[in-house]
UniProtKB/TrEMBL annotation:
EC number: 1.5.1.7
GO biological process per UniProt: lysine biosynthetic process via aminoadipic acid
One Pfam entry name: AlaDh_PNT_N
Active-site feature positions: K77 (proton acceptor), H95 (proton donor)
Protein name: Saccharopine dehydrogenase [NAD(+), L-lysine-forming]
Record-stated family: Belongs to the AlaDH/PNT family.
Domain Alanine dehydrogenase/pyridine nucleotide transhydrogenase NAD(H)-binding stretches: 171-312
GO cellular component: cytoplasm
EC top class named in words: oxidoreductase
Stretches assigned to coiled coil: none
Binding annotation for NAD(+): R129, G195, R196, D219, T223, Y243, V272, I313, D314, H315, L316
Amino acid sequence: MSRQPLWLRCEKKEFERRAALTPTTAKKLIDSGFDIYVERDEQRIFDDAEYEAVGCTLVENNSWPKAPVTTPIIGLKELPVSDDPLPHTHIQFAHCYKRQAGWSSVLSRFHRGGGTLYDLEFLTDESGRRVAAFGYHAGFAGAAAGALAHAAQKNGQPLGQLEPYENEAAMVKAVKERLGGSGKGVKALVIGALGRCGRGAVDLFRKIGLDEDDIVKWDLAETAPGGPFQEILDVDIFVNCIYLSSPIPHFVTADTIRAAGKDRRLSVVVDVSCDTTNPHNPIPIYNINTTFDKPTVPVDVGPGNPPLSVISIDHLPTLLPREASEQFSSDLLPSLLELPNRQTARVWVTAEQLYKQKLAEAVEAEGL
Ligand SMILES: NC(=O)c1ccc[n+]([C@@H]2O[C@H](COP(=O)([O-])OP(=O)(O)OC[C@H]3O[C@@H](n4cnc5c(N)ncnc54)[C@H](O)[C@@H]3O)[C@@H](O)[C@H]2O)c1
């Protein structure tokens, strides 16, 4: 049987250090009959040499348009905006299936080039659950940012710029240091604690030394009575990790915060779910997404009351590029191993059906 080629392209989005394929997964693919081409990329958290060492063929940065059209191209983020037709098969997050800004022009590039898009967000298992997602490290990094903001606030300072950490241990060490050696004594509430992001948030709090009793874990059962919840105001850090699928009562509101006055313990809200512009956002106390250079936004708490900040960064896993990539890539591996049988393998067939449906909608919208 001939070997299956796969081409890892560089990421062009600023600050994006993650990779869809890591040297570990690349090695497993090579051992299973793949030829892996890797574009040289200084931005990526993994060195080019790490890929070369496991047998990948290194190619020029951003040279995928010249790759043979039969070679699928894998990457994470959107391609830079352009009108160029796309003749290849692309495996990536394209953010164009939910009618996001520019969705139909992205899909029209595939239409004109004759290529195929397998959107990573829509590769699912038999039960409809995503085969690979970045949630765990989003929660982990979000909880770390929350703990850093809490420590800064105790010292009367705003939280400064956040930078990606070399690895998880470095992040845990830095957070503990800022908290004076340990997070013991800090109390946190994680809602959506049974999900991917929620499990990551709980693990970070454990690793920085919070007592188990001080990590309050809520999921659907606990929020079933409907908010707003006093319990949120009685912890230092509240991390929201729910998957919002239908309107629910607010978890916390500007009124409940003001009414708590000086007795409020809550100092930081981390909204990992980031339903910022969703009209049903259960945390309607902020209205912007924050960024690595300005990670917090203050809440209007009323005169004389203790400060409260919100962190609403929508690309938190970028703070842990190495581990986030390793986890994502290894979760994706079983599906990638099916790539040579993509005409019959369920995960790819389903993704292609969805692509064709979205493509037809785009063709109609663009009048092609
Ligand atoms: N900020 C970021 O960088 C980032 C990164 C990845 C994912 N996310 C977002 O985080 C959210 C969660 O993603 P996930 O992969 O962890 O989802 P998930 O499906 O694995 O987990 C969601 C959890 O929320 C629970 N839940 C849903 N509604 C609830 C409610 N009303 N009350 C209590 N619990 C509730 C579910 O039972 C589940 O346990 C999504 O909105 C996702 O888009 C954000």
